[in-house]
Protein: Threonine/Serine exporter ThrE domain-containing protein
Amino acid sequence: MNFETFYTSFFATMAFGIIFNVPKRSMISGGIIGMLGWALYIWLTGQYHFDMVFATLIAAFFVATVSQLLARYHKMPVTVFSVSGIIPLVPGGLAYDTMRHFVENDYSIAIKYATKTLLISGAIAFGLIFSGVISQILRRNDNANVKED
Structure:
């Protein structure tokens, strides 16, 4: 594995944290979340040859779940961690290639890239939503158990 990509994802996540005005005390945690999400994605696609979309779904779910745990620990909103932590997974390069091929009138490749970009974006959204839904279900079950006691 190339550790330079992990450092880059850490600093990119922190840079987006600065852009989004996250509190200073959450910057390192946010950077680590982004780096670990990217490391998981690289590990799944490189080591186990997972499809990019499925690996993105798993990594986004991981980022969202860890973001929720850290949000409770730091007593901050989940979005402080999840928005900047998800940045390394965003398919910006694919979106650029999509537009470049459309401009060059190479529509068959452009459609291929556009489809992959949309699927990866959907996987990110689904991973974030799925983690949130599971968290709410677990919270409701905890509240129900507390009321019964």
User: Anything to note?
Assistant: The chain is about 80% helix and 0% strand. The chain has one domain: 3-148. The mean pLDDT is 94.
